Amino acid sequence: MGDNSAISHHRRRGLPTVRDVKDRGLRTFVTVLAGLAVIYFGSAGRSPEEGGGISGGVVVLALLAALLVWHLTRPGDKTVK
Q1: Single pTM value for the model
Q2: What is the DSSP letter of 53?
Q3: CA 15 to CA 10: how far, in whole Å?
Q4: Is residue 8 part of a domain?
Q5: 38 part of a folded domain
Q6: How many CB atoms sit inside 10 A of residue 58's CB?
Q7: How much is the pLDDT for 37?
């Protein structure tokens, strides 16, 4: 039975596979990228008279965008029967 039984045992226990870890890394990267994009575009149009930095509203929008991406990129149900 060797490797096949060990693999199915890990899947039944819910342990992450190599593919799951790679998917989570990509998911995290895309989530962070979405938040940074909102911050960049939210602060790029400010005039010098308004001062530097970003407003609290832009930070909130960036967090909401990141949470939305995290939610939309979650993996589907991969239950092994």
Answers
A1: 0.65
A2: S
A3: 5
A4: no
A5: yes
A6: 17
A7: 94
DSSP characters for 1-30? -HHHHHHHHHHHHT---HHHHHHHHHHHHH
> Does some domain include residue 44?
yes
Distance CA 41, CA 27 (A): 21
**How confident is the model at residue 43, as a pLDDT?**
83
The total domain count for the chain is 1
For residue range 17-65, list pLDDT tens digits in order: 767 767 888 889 999 999 999 999 888 777 777 777 788 899 999 999 9
Question: Angle CA(72)–CA(37)–CA(25) in degrees, nearest 5?
Answer: 50
**Does 6 fall in a domain?**
no
Residue span of the structural domain in which 64 resides: 23-81
